Recover the amino acids of this structure.
């Protein structure tokens, strides 16, 4: 599923997650896999505790990190697409 500005994103609450030293480690029982998030991945994971549109997520990140929007969008899209493939983050375009 392709992400657009109005795509609603939320983290998968069935993923077990814990923060350690500013990074998040996670386990997917469904996939029997462990994942580790960088500091920015941890920030995104925290923001996605409640459903938010991709556009609003980018607004928050660009304000927080003073980064150009197009760079933020590209980097965040890559992270989200990988996370969606692993069913760590869910997308709801309904």
């Amino acid at each position: 599923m392709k992400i657009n500005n109005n795509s609603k994103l939320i983290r998968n609450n069935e993923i077990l997650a814990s923060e350690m030293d500013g990074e998040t480690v996670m386990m997917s029982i469904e996939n029997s896999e462990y994942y580790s998030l960088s500091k920015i991945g941890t920030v995104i994971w925290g923001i996605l505790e409640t459903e938010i549109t991709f556009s609003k997520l980018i607004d928050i990140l660009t304000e927080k990190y003073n980064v150009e929007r197009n760079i933020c969008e590209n980097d965040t899209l890559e992270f989200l697409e990988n996370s969606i493939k692993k069913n760590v983050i869910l997308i709801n375009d309904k």
About this structure: The chain has one domain: 8-92. The two ends are 12 Å apart (CA to CA). Residues 69-85 form the longest helix (17 residues). The first strand starts at residue 8 and ends at 11.
